[in-house]
Amino acid sequence: MKLITAVVKPHKLEDVRTALETFGVTGMTVTEASGYGRQKGHTEVYRGAEYEVDLVPKVRLEVVIEDGDASDVLDVIVKAAQTGKIGDGKVWVTPVETIVRVRTGEVDGDAL
Amino acid sequence: MTLMEINAGDTAWVLVSAALVFLMTPGLAFFYGGMVRVKSVLNMMMMSAITIGVVTVLWVVVGYSLTFGGDNGGVIGNFSVAGLKGLIAPDAVSGTIPTLAYVGFQLMFAIITPALISGAIADRASFRGWIVFVALWTSLVYFPVAHSVWYLDGEGGGGFIGTGIKAIDFAGGTAVHVNAGAAALALAIVLGKRVGWRKDPMRPHSLPLVVLGAGLLWFGWFGFNAGSALTAGTTAAVTFVNTQCATAAAVIGWLIVERIRHGKATTLGMASGAVAGLVAITPACGALTPVGSLILGVVAGGICAFAVSLKYKLGFDDSLDVVGVHLVGGLVGSLAIGFLGTAAAPSAVDGLFYGGGAGQLGRQALANVIVGVYSFVVAFILAKLIDLTIGFRIKEDDEVTGIDQLEHAESAYDFLAAGSGLRGPATVVRTPAPAAPVDDAPEKDASEKEGANA
Q: Which residues are annotated as modified residue O-UMP-tyrosine in the UniProt record (chain A) (predicted)?
């Protein structure tokens, strides 16, 4: 199994969620996040005093899927989250050793 | 004086204006409250609110009498109407309105003036130090200054600034804004800089609150300026329209400067420009034409947008720019009378641009220098005395934690309920035990009681 973590622009969350649902992914975890990449945030001005705001708001989205689906899901997320502008985010895949559904005790594939 | 001289329209206008001016203090609380950080918004609002309490009491007991009751050398009144003695009688009339209407109207000015000062010492002034300062400064500075600027004895004499120097201050550019701005500078210097000033981010925590506050200030300011006519007539109409003209133009003036200097027209700049315009037109609203007011507004907005940077150059932490907006804005408006004043307006004085010579300009400058220096010196001494006795500045640790928690045991927003559970029996909300007799349902009753006391 794989854990796919995506950090995307907050307004793209709904597009990604819909795309993943269409693909057949049944659940996900979403967290509000903030951070920066190459763009290094932005500048704000208050009565002439300039502030560098390094951390910009993002959402962090996590799904666990079967190994064979990883590259497809990666594609789905990238396509849905892409605006082509700076700050679109990152998606990465990490291996998952085991997973248990808390309610039933089912393990791995059955627990997804 | 008899009842016959009371004019219902004038009285209604002054009472409504008094209520409008009152609204400016809560408006100021929002304006200032939005500009500070999350951890000090309540204290900022409380500093405005407490002036309503302290100054109202002072005003009734001695303030009105010292300001508008009789005259001693053109600088202060006396105790002839202390406690508003005799002023609830039907024959207590000032001009065409009951004297009490004037008492109420002027009270609102006395309330907001010290409240304006508080913006200079955001986040770091002890609440009791502030209360003591408000009481002392209002007594020693506001009452005599307002007397000097506005008191008329009915025979052409009165306060030395208004009737001696003959400086014009229609609604308080000198008595309110330069007065408060100079005191703000003194306090900012005595209390010192906030922890982390120019290093830590101190962004306004809520610009919508700032805009709400600026809107309420703008609305209330019509009472401030047009109410100062004390009659519902031409003068009120002229000052009303001039107020709108200058304020609108000042928004544009501030935003132009911002756009050129920083590349963006900001919301805070819009709100600040509005307040700068309101401040500037205050002394001049009875002396200018509407076009003159537009010119004053755009100039005042532009100058104040530059003036708020002064603190960085001069190194004093006037947290919310009381000096840049009120002292500078008040000065600009007051001096503008010397340039843009026209005899056709209610104040009936020609300025330089209308062939009146430089005389009025000199009188305006002199009046503001006297008031500014007096207010600065007395505020400086008072702040030092308070700091040395009961303490005026809170401890560094408390400032870092947040003055709302230290002074008021509250926080403005509940961002995260976790970790804020009820503590101790005194804070537990108890559910009343059921009224049914114990015999009827002993088990249920016992469990409910237990639950109620848990």
A: 51
